[in-house]
Amino acid sequence: MAELNLLQLCRGQYGKIADIGAADGDLAFFLEKQGLSVDVIENESTNFNRLEGAQILKHALDSSVTIRLVDLDSQFPLSGEKYDAIFLLGTLYHLKNPFLILERLARMTEYCFVSTRIAKQTADGQPLSPYPIAYLLGPKECNNDNTNFWIFSEEGLKRLIDRAGWNVVSYLTIGDTTHSTPADPDRDERAFCLLQSKTSPTLSASPNPVPAGERMGKTTILWNTANGDAGKVYVSTNGREESLFATSRQGSAAANWIRAGSTYEFRLYNSDHTELLAKIAVTRARQ
Q1: Where are the domains of the chain?
Q2: How far is Cα 96 from Cα 73, in angstroms, rounded to an integer?
Q3: 199: which residues sit within 8 A by CB, 6+ positions away?
Q4: Most exposed: 16, 141, 206, 239, by fewest CB within 10 Å?
Q5: From CA 86, how far away is CA 109, in angstroms rounded?
């Protein structure tokens, strides 16, 4: 989808993103160079070099990337964390309980980038693709790696995504997209997904920045509390006292008074204005 901007999706109210299953952290260090604050979340015991590569790169690059050692299969100390986006690339099939992890992540972020191996059929040709199922690998069946567990059919992956609390924003597959199997290296198919949480509150502005022009600028604010409760949207201009902009569980409203040189921070609260659910800063481009 050409209209999606990776860096814009990664920049939000929390000021940081996470790369789970980051291997040597190459993606994390690249995203840091784009101006993002990044947490690397890895399991030292299953990382192929026990995170030595990531530590070496962090030192060589004088990086501020935070490396967090977490075994997602035996604990979940991240439940209180919030991220603007999470990358979960090539990790899902290494998890014993992928449903639990995706469900928890849906409460921690608005966007999640996922890639995982999928299969159209078994090694002996039995069809998998029509059914929402997962194939449990033997300990040495795939790449002689006993940390590989679940290979989903395409329908199985999409059902997992839906039931774990996500909407699919963008989806594509590469590799052997006709006769893929769970383990054969020559018949490998990968699915790449951009997911948006159905359980995380959302607040967005479009366009943002507002284009330059002679008249007052206009943007449309969209929000959703995601929990069925009523919400309130307030706006603060240049850090001044906030004022009520809109009230409802979800909706959209136009702000047609956006000026260049000012910053408008829109904030979504719960119904009694005691908990900040989301916020976004809107500006206007100068001519």
Answers
A1: 6-197, 202-282
A2: 6
A3: 106, 107, 165, 226, 227
A4: 239
A5: 7
Pull the structure tokens for residue 135. Answer: 């194939």
Assessment of whether the complete model's pTM goes beyond 0.85: no
Question: Residue 14 carries which side chain, given as an amino acid letter?
Answer: Y
pLDDT per residue as tens, the chain (287 positions): 446 788 888 988 788 999 999 999 999 999 999 999 999 999 999 999 999 999 999 999 999 999 999 998 886 677 678 899 999 999 999 999 999 999 999 989 989 999 999 999 999 999 999 999 999 999 999 999 999 999 999 999 999 999 999 999 999 999 999 999 999 999 999 999 999 998 888 898 999 999 999 899 999 999 999 878 899 999 999 999 999 999 999 999 999 999 999 999 999 999 999 989 889 999 999 87
The fold adopted by the segment(s) 6-197 is Rossmann fold (3.40.50)
3-state secondary structure the chain: CCCCCHHHHHCCCCCCEEEECCCCCHHHHHHHHCCCCEEEEECCCCCCCCCHHHHHHHHHCCCCCEEEECCCCCCCCCCCCCEEEEEEECCHHHCCCHHHHHHHHCCCEEEEEEEEEECCECCCCCECCCCCCEEECCCCCCCCCCCCCEEECHHHHHHHHHHCCEEEEEEEEEECCCCCCCCCCCCCEEEEEEEEECCCCEEEEECCCECCCCCCEEEEEEEECCCCCCEEEEEEECCCCCEEEEECCEEEEEEEEECCCCCEEEEEEECCCCCEEEEEEECECCC
Pairing of strands 202-206, 217-224: antiparallel
